[in-house]
Structure formats: structure tokens, C-alpha cells
Amino acid sequence: MKNRIKQITKFIAVYALLMLGSCAEELYKDEPLNQSKIKVSYVNEIALENNNLLMEKINNSALFKKNAMNRIITDTLTGYSIDTDKVKYIVGENFNSYTFEIVTPQQTYLDNLVLISKNGGEYKPYAMRYTLTEEEKLKLYTDEYIDFTNKCKAAEIDNGETLEEILSKYSYNEDCNMVYTWQETITITPCTIDGCLNSPWASFSYGHVLIGTLVCSDGGSSGGDMGSGDIGTSPHGGGGDLPPNPCLSLKKHLSTTTGVKLKAPSMVPALKLTLNQTGENGRSLVKNNNIYTTPTLAPTPGLAIIASYGAKIFGSVHTHPYPSGAPMFSWTDVYSLVLFNNNVEASLIPEVVIFLVCKDANGADQLYALKIDDEAVFADALTADIQANISPSELEGIPEEQKTEKMLGLMDKELTLDYQRSPDKELGFLKKFSNFGISLYKANSTMTNWSKLTLQNPASTNPTVLPIPCK
To answer: From the CB of residue 229, how many other CB atoms can be counted at a distance below 10 Å?
Structure first.
């Protein structure tokens, strides 16, 4: 079962804000995140230590290595450890559980430790092992569907068992599987207790909540009193991050088979063939029912393609002609992130992106991407930039329906002057937008990976561009 929560965290048009004289914080607003009866949050060791019942189980367990001060530590001798810095905390109607990632030297599987308490009772420990593809691991922190059928082995844990002994249970002499009776994908809920891990992006990360029963090949099961199962958890780890790492969502698009398939012949390769035209070409990026499509945008004779916006449209890929167009995003391009963010449904906000296909000053083909890191910072920065560069008098006498276009034209002109002062357009963009809550990415020449472009020594008189490859 899938629950698409409607969450409104949208930008109000920057132009309207400027004309009405509103405060920058009105560019966005938050509404309740989850309508589900289950809540998923991230917590750290502080939250664990404040739960006396949980700590009683941890202190009586051989799973957690502790120092003389009874603090949980990593077992550096064996290479096995339990991550207590980022734990998934799940609360249901009659249960709560803590899901820890088990870190192993090989990391072949996704191993989790789950401590679950039903109806306020003692916490019971389970070890979970998921066999997931790399693509499925990337989906763990999105709302994309994952079929967990026959992909999870599980084991009950005795208090005296060590972590190494638990992992050895996966020889499956006793072959036990999780049979799921309920599945839901919900947004992560920021919490208010001590030890919460919250961030501006927390509400745009997702948890695949699973409730099921442990069924063993000998016919036994771990019957439960949760109504729909015995174990309630959310698979945790496998490269996930809080906030979500944009590299994960960007990398899936560098493919001929996943995401928007940027490497497919009809996508970036075809757009590169149009770079010698005088106008711009592009595609919309659409996701509907977990299926990506890329409808063609109408080509334009000039340097301004008209993008489409809507609930299922999370971005675009377009060209800048060579050599007449700048080989970098325009101010209008940056502003388009606002419009995609405004119009797309809440579940697709983490996917919002724009791609640019162009040639650099040396005539080499380039592919760039632009992502929002912090919506609030982005909103404030756009507002301040407009107010610093456009006075209301410059828009006087212009028909209302033309004012936004005029405003964007003025901002593009200012950015063009900045680019002219910086032959290195990547450097020019970063000097302008480095504190705008957005990030610039560049694909390598083989389109197999991205690098995040950042300013090195930004406070110096001669900063340089530092590419950080995605991992």
C-alpha cells in the first residue's frame, strides 16, 4: 500500500513577493507532513539513552560494545559495528521500534538490527538481512516502489549472542523469511525529542515501512499482537543519507535504462546534435506512476525555451546554442527551479532538477545539472537578488502580464554581465550563486558520473573551481 502525502512546501512567485513587499519567509510554508498512523523519524544516541526501557535491553545485550563509561562504541577489532549515530525510530498505534544499520566489512547485504516494543512492553531484538540491487538501495530514500517479496531473511536474537554470532545465523540452517502483510511509503517526520536528527530536507526523505511476520521453513512463526504482523521496521542504510544525497538521484539518470535515461540516443546525444542551431531545444522530465517520460518541448528560434510545469513534471533538460548562448545556466534557468518546485506534487520535490546541454568555450560538449539544497535559503537569496538589482520604478507602466518576463530579462542581463567578467563560466556561476541554497553538478565526458562543482578558497581574490566526484 502506498500513501502519497500531499505536503505543501512551495515557493510563492518571487515577483509577487517583491511587488507586495512581503517578508522573505513567506516564500514557503510548511503543513503537516504525514497523514499516516505510523511516523518515521531519525534519532541519534542521545534519544536512545533517554529511553530507559530501550537502554535496559541494550545494556543487557552482547550486541553493543561499550566502554568503561558504558558508552556504545564501534568494535574496531572485528570490523562489525552498529551505527547509533543515525537510527530510524518508528511509532505505530501499538508499537515502536528502533532500526539500526549493521556495518560489516564487506557490506554485501543490507543488514539491520531492529528493537521493537509492543504495547509498551520489553524490547525484542531481531536481525534483518535484505538482498537488494544497487538500484533498489537508491530507492530506499525515495517514494519509488520496491518489491520486498523474498528479499529479507530474519532471525530472533538471544540476549547473550554477539554481533558476529548473529551474522553467522545467515547460514540459514533455520531458514526464516519475513512475510509482509503491510507496506507503506511515507515521508520522514521531524521530531521534537532530544536526539532528533532533523534538517530542511528531512521532510523530503522517505521510509519504506514494513510490517510482517517471521516465518521459518520448519513451519514455525513468531506470531504477533500488532494486528497485521509481528515486526515493524523500515530498511535502513545502503548508502542512504540525511539529508538525501542529490548524487543518488542524479546518477540514476545517467543511464539508458533508469530514470530519464539521459544517455539514450533520443536524449542528450540527440540534443547535442542541435547545438549548432540558433535556438534552444529540450525535453520535459515527467514521472507518473513511477514511470519516467520525456516529452519534447517546442524548439525556439531564440535563446529562451518555454518549459512546461505541472504536478508530474519535475524538471527539464534543454540546450544553449553554440557559440551564441552562454555555456552555463541563465538566471531564468535558475528561476525555473522555483516554478518546477511550485507546481510539482510533494512526493516529487526531491527529484526537481534542470539539466543543461551545451558546448564550452573550447567547443567541448558539456552536461550540467542544478539541484535545490535548501529551499528556505534559496527563497531568501532569490528575493534579495531581485531587490538588489531591480527597482519598482523599472517595472512601472508595464502591463501586469509582462512584468515577470521583464523582471527575468533584467536579471538575465545582470548575470550576463557577470559572465562577461569571468571567462570561466563555471567560476562565474559559482561566485554568483554559491550561497543560494543550490548546487551545480557536471557530468564527466563519458556520462558515467557527476561531480559537484564548488568554490575552492572562496574568500580569496582568486578562487578556483573544485570538482568533487559523486560516490
So the answer is: 21
